[in-house]
Amino acid sequence: MSTREDTKRVELLQGTLDLLILRTLLRGPAHGYAIAKAIEFNSDDVLQVEQGSLYPALHRLIKRRWISAEEGASENNRRAKFYRLTPKGRRQLALETSKWDKLARAIARILQPAE
Amino acid sequence: MSRRKRMLENLDADVRDHIERETQDNIAGGMSPEEARRRAFLKFGNVSRVREDTRNVWTFVWLEQILLDLRFALRMLRKSPGFTAVAILTLALGIGANTAIFSIVDGVILRPLPYPQSDRIVYFGWLDKQQLIPDLSIPELAFIRDHATNFTAVAGFQGYADKELSQGPSKRWVTAAFITDGFFETLGVSPQLGHPFARQFTRPGGANAAVLTDSLWRSVFASDPNIIGRQIILDNEPYTVTGVLPPGFEYTQPADVFVSLHFDNDLGNNGLNTDVIGRLKPGVSLSAAQAEARLVGSQFFAQASAEQRQGAGVLHLDRYQDYLASGHRSTLLILLSAVGLLLLIACANVASLLLARATSRQKEISIRLALGAGPRRLLQQFLAEGLILGITGAAAGLAAAVSSLHIFVSAIPWDLPLMDRIALDARVLFFTTAVALAASVIFGLASFFQTRKLDLNSTLKEGHAVAGTRRTRTTLLNALVIGEIAISLMLALGAGLLVKTLYNLYQVNLGFNPDHLVLMHTPFRSNMSDAKIWNFERQALARIQSIPGVQSPAIVSVAPLHGQGNVPAQRDGHPENSLSTEYRAISADYFATMGIPILRGRAFQQTDFTSSAPVAIINETLARDWWSGQNPIGDRVVIGEYKGRQYINIPQPALQVIGVVADVKGRLLDRPAPDMVYVPASQALQMNRSSDWIIRTKASMGIAAALRKAITDISPDQRITDLQPMSQLIGTAVAQPSFLALLMGSFGALALLLTLGGVYGLLSFQIAQRTHEIGVRIALGATRRQIWRLVIGRAAKVAAIGVLIGLFAAFGLTRLMASLLFSVQPIDPLVFASVPILVLFVALLAAYIPARRAMRVDPMVALRHE
């Protein structure tokens, strides 16, 4: 992944990208570029996805049948592949989210024990 | 269409589309089109890597990569054909030798015997003071058969003999094996025709029975389906055919016919002379059977008469295959370890070649690392290269082993049981493959580890290794070469010990003068009487004497190194002086012909052959054992008596000792001369039913044809075998140590050759790397001599360390060879002093050319090059 010196931006942990994609698709099907933009936008540009790495991740999720892909037309009628969350992916997202929450809380406690 | 294909179909379009959108967005944000596109690409990252990673999600990545790696490795290897050829040849040598030796180990030790459930077959022996006496007596066999309950069958086998098979007028010699009933049941083999013979055929004085092998039945009896129940004539005696064995049946040694062994209570059946085998009942464990055998053994002792009590210790049984292999196990394992060590050297050599070659590949590897190849990927690449070398080497080695195994096995001078089975089978293939894979992994790892500390920047910039890298790589190389030296020293030491053994064997005092002696063997038919035999021999001796060129002919029942024939014997009236001594029936001129000196008394004279006064001549050893320095002349010995008991049905007269002769060797060259009693052939018991003829010729003349004629003129159908110069017999006696010495000598020589290459490679590599440094040294005033000393000193240091390690290991290891050595200590001072010097010399020889190259470094060229 990228090695920028911008301290405000955080490199994505491996596997986190999967979670973010699933979360993004919870709001409805989207094509690749839209997913990348959504992740950037929703994290206030803090999370920097090297956009290319999105594609292996998408395919990994398809392979696991957590998302599906279908050909469709985008807003301005261009051909695009749309990705959609499957029921299995929805379950997985719930599972991963709760896991992530626990982890985040645990880390937060360790980092700010006084409070 | 597979999911994978469908998903990957538009990947490129997706990626392009993605970047296009980003570009549009950037333009919309106010950038110039070029800048917008540049930023979009930057943000997207490495397009080809994304493509590869995505593809990898869907593929068995490793498989595809391995194919790629293999293809690349092939290309790399083809680019340096010299290196590849040397590496593959080295490996082929190591793997080929291992495959050949392993096939023998496999055939003798590992592969089950060719009988159904062969692990249920056991053999019996007496275990006395840790020593196993693997033969039993007939009474012992009969007792075990009747009393042990854990066996479906117990049977005896009493060796082989040639018999004359006559069919009307036509006669031929066949090899007969003597067996008891239950033999085929024990092996689990049923005849294809008829059945094995019943117990009645083994009773004393009973009728004879025969079971034919398939090949004899086909060749001689024209596959006669009505052969069962018919009689065949062997040595003029009738044998009833009860069965024909299935094709492919084999026992320890080839035989044509299996005949019934009679439980006669005569000399032949009273000794420990029968192999006894049994088949365990289903469900009976080996240990349970062993426990019962101990019990049955002690029961036998409790009830047996003193003369039936031949064995001593406890009755022991073990798997038959273990027994068959036991005599060869240590030799084979030593050979296997030797070729194993040779292979290690070969691997070390190839690995050091690979390491040295890596210099020229540093740039390539650095580029690959810079382009993002991870360590795993790099390791895979090296493993692929190793794999190609390993597999190609193994294939070449296997091909060599396949084409030469037959010749190799037939050159083996010792009798391996079931030798025909030695062949390349799945197990051998598996072994070779395993060896090849192990070698491949070693090569892969060796190449890999030296890239670990590669400094990308400096390598890419300068195309030269930085100091740190150089040191690591050289350490590994040094270690490999030291290992090679150590191992080849061990192999050379082993070879040295065996060569010295061989030398000692040739120096052994035979006790007779073998020059210009010709040996001939005549087996007699079992129905030929002793008197008739002597009569024939006397006439033939006279005829041979008249052959031009013959100095003197003689007869001995068994010539030295040609076999054995022992009898129980006792000094007359001294039961404490009882021994199993060698017994030789000779003609009057035997001692003169052989050149055996008479030490006391006299030799036999013609009168001893015509008179009935029983006389004997004893050898030095027996005189010492029984008379301990006193004069034995005039005293008496009794053949067939042992500790006051008679072992021969016909009472034997006491023989008056009329002379003492110098010792000659018995059957074995490497054993001290056995106690020996000589008697005139006219008075002798014809136990062996054959005679050896010793003919001293005036010069080395071809008299074979004349000899044959002399015999057949008297007895036209008398068989003659083993007609050869005595020197050839001695050659046969040392064939096994010669073969071992040759084999180990070749391994040692190969090891040294490989080591020579290894040391040369190491130093060449180091000097190539240090050209600059050497140039500086010379520029600063170092003399050529100092440079020379620097290089030679380095070689000497590496060699000395290797030699020390090798010596240290050899001190422990050569002890394992003790059983193969003859009057050589496992740590023989001469060998242990000279071989290390040889190895050091080889190492310095290897350093010669690199040292000269270093001396000639031109400082200007070396420095400018930088």
Low-confidence stretches of chain B: 463-469
Counting DSSP H or I runs of 4 or more residues, the number of helices of chain B is 26
Order of helices and strands of chain A: EHEHEHEEH
Beta strand % of chain B: 15-25%
End-to-end distance of chain A, in Å?
A: 34 Å
Roughly what is the average pLDDT of chain B, rounded to an integer? Answer: 85
Number of strands of chain A: 5
Structural class of chain B: alpha+beta
State the largest interface.
Answer: A-B, 20 and 24 residues
Number of helices of chain A: 4
Describe the structure using short key phrases.
heterodimer; A: 115 residues; alpha+beta; 3-stranded antiparallel β-sheet; two-stranded parallel sheet; 49% helix; 17% strand; globular; disordered N terminus; B: 866 residues; 6-stranded mixed beta barrel; 6-stranded mixed β-barrel; 26 helices
Describe the structure.
The complex is a heterodimer of chains A (115) and B (866). Chain A is 49% helix and 17% strand. Chain A has four helices and five strands, in the order βαβαβαββα. Chain A has helices at 16-25, 32-42, 54-63, 87-111; strands spanning 10-11, 30-31, 47-48, 67-73, 79-85. In chain A, the strands form two sheets. A three-stranded antiparallel β-sheet of chain A has the order 2-5-4. In chain A, α1 packs across α2. The longest helix of chain A is centred in the C-terminal third of the chain and has 25 residues, at 87-111. Chain A starts with 9 loop residues before the first strand and ends with a helix. With 866 residues, chain B is an alpha+beta fold. Chain B is built from 26 helices and 24 strands. A six-stranded mixed barrel of chain B has the order 3-4-9-6-8-7.
